[in-house]
Amino acid sequence: MDHLDDATRTELEAAAFRRLLRHLDEHKEVQNIDLMILADFCRNCLSKWLVSAAEERGEALDYEAAREYVYGMPYSEWKTHYQQEATPQQQAAFAARQAQKQEKAR
User: Fold this and answer.
1) pTM of the entire predicted model
2) pLDDT 10s digits, 25-47
3) Which domains, and CATH codes, for the chain?
4) Which stretch is the leader sequence (predicted)?
C-alpha cells in the first residue's frame, strides 16, 4: 500500500474498519470473550481505540458513544439481547490467554 497517497490509504483503512464492524454485527453470536481468547481484542477494545484516536487528534469522543457506534446500538441493549454468560471453558481459555501474555511480557 506504499504506492497510495495518505488520503486514499486512510479511506481504504476506514472502509475496512466499517466492514469489520458490519461483519461483527452480522455475527452477534461471536461473543467478546471469544474474540479476546482468539485475537486479544473485542468490540469494547475497538470502542476504546476510537476514543484514543479521537483524543490523539484533540477531539472529544465519549466512550459510550463509541460503543454505540461499534455495537450498532446502546451497549446495554446489545448486552441484554446478545451477550451470553461466559462458560467455564471460555473463562479458563481466557485465563490461559492472559497468563500467556504475562509470560511473554517477562
Assistant:
1) 0.89
2) 999 999 999 999 999 999 999 99
3) 6-105 (1.10.3340.10)
4) none
